[in-house]
UniProtKB/TrEMBL annotation, chains A, B:
EC number: 2.7.11.33, 2.7.4.28
MF-aspect GO terms: ADP binding; ATP binding; phosphotransferase activity, phosphate group as acceptor; protein serine/threonine kinase activity
Organism per entry: Thauera phenylacetica B4P
Chemical reaction(s) catalysed: [pyruvate, water dikinase]-phosphate + phosphate + H(+) = [pyruvate, water dikinase] + diphosphate; [pyruvate, water dikinase] + ADP = [pyruvate, water dikinase]-phosphate + AMP + H(+)
InterPro entries in UniProt: Kinase-pyrophosphorylase, PSRP
Protein name: Putative phosphoenolpyruvate synthase regulatory protein
Entry keywords, A to Z: Kinase, Nucleotide-binding, Serine/threonine-protein kinase, Transferase
Protein family (similarity comment): Belongs to the pyruvate, phosphate/water dikinase regulatory protein family. PSRP subfamily.
Keyword Nucleotide-binding set for record: yes
Amino acid sequence: MNDIARRTVFFVSDGTGITAETLGHSLLAQFPEARFRQVRAPFIDDIDKAIDCATQIREAAAEDGVRPIVFSTLVNQATVDALHKSDALFLDLFERFIGPLEAELGQRSTHAVGRFHGIADSLNYKHRIEAINFAMAHDDGISSEGELAEADVILVGVSRSGKTPTSLYLAMQFGVKAANYPLIPEDFERNKLPGELHKYRGKLFGLTIAPERLSQIRQERRPNSRYAALENCRYEIDAAHKLMRRENIRCLDSTTKSIEEISATILQTIRVDRPGF
Amino acid sequence: MNDIARRTVFFVSDGTGITAETLGHSLLAQFPEARFRQVRAPFIDDIDKAIDCATQIREAAAEDGVRPIVFSTLVNQATVDALHKSDALFLDLFERFIGPLEAELGQRSTHAVGRFHGIADSLNYKHRIEAINFAMAHDDGISSEGELAEADVILVGVSRSGKTPTSLYLAMQFGVKAANYPLIPEDFERNKLPGELHKYRGKLFGLTIAPERLSQIRQERRPNSRYAALENCRYEIDAAHKLMRRENIRCLDSTTKSIEEISATILQTIRVDRPGF
């Protein structure tokens, strides 16, 4: 019998709530035994909405039989006060950290609501959108002559080794322009990098994956195909390894790594010539 | 003369550092007047790396003439201690919040290092990757008959109104399967939704954009084209509005909104039948 009470967790914000949710997830992952139900409460930017949210928190407490946990990034004190009329464990991210930051910087914070993208961030935002468009336009080897010059990184690896999601994450999170290029049997037969990749050695980063995992992923796409057969996956991965070793391409195994981990590792090895890198 | 000292900000983590960076960015955006240089320090998962990082912090302090600010999600106390041998404003996310959470839950945290994806998260991770593949496979109207049944949301709007980056963000951040479908002049002439969209009215969500902004974005793609002409952008947006109004499609203006804001708003209005929504 499962006698652990379920807890409701609220992510409350005057903006998107993504900061509250990101930190909340990281903290809750430290308690793998606990059972959580998650509720997003974004755009709580006036007192009426905060009062409604407090009511939701009280209802969740009554339903669960234990008080909820609230991760909050509310900036406006009146909304904070309204929220605190309910009973919960409040983990207030701004309250804890804004004070020390103000003291350190000798400046008052703007206390601007919904400030997900500050002034300093708007250029970063533009870079991110451009990088997403770049990743889409240069996915899966669809790059014309000369276009890869603009890439910050070019991911290479066999089909379904994780290149596309990683390219998109690099773009979305960091504004890094990532192209990706599949290594296919024809490349192994020629024993040469495809297309113009030899021109951009410094930007190349290889992804590899365990043959068993690759076969499983490919099975979901094309069941019982030669493409998905374990033997073929072994051959392709082995040939890709040899090619990458010969060409001196740094390589990472994506089998048990998330796109976040792969991206953070790539950023440690490539050079991006923009502020923030 | 600019007499504000530049501060170096470190994002230190035993994992990817993305949590530290997300919270850090939100907090720093509250100080738009300050000048920051950002340094990522991911994968600080042993004492030697923490000692190296402490050295980097001291060097930054010497260079800037002011001590750095450090956002940290280190879990291991020995690495925390090694880091704290340098002088900085330490904003330690786990230290502040793990204690209250342990007390509330009546459980010790695992103190597991690099725990970006906990056990509970691995299913979410799978959903996210599937959703990214789905968004890629159903971008820009490339959906075959019946395939849209699987979508959680279908974004519609004129070309370059923000559908693709929003679809990808919904997938990446929330594991939401988002297809997107452009509304093109032929649709306005026929005065009907394209393809099979009429079958999925409950999943449709419209994006619109100011004509001036749209024209500017399209100019970057195809300078001096009819496609980018302000007059044509006005016509398309107006026609799209009329079509969406007639078909009762909820619609959001993306002109001054980030993909985070658009996505959080969409999630408030659509129904996703999975835990966490």
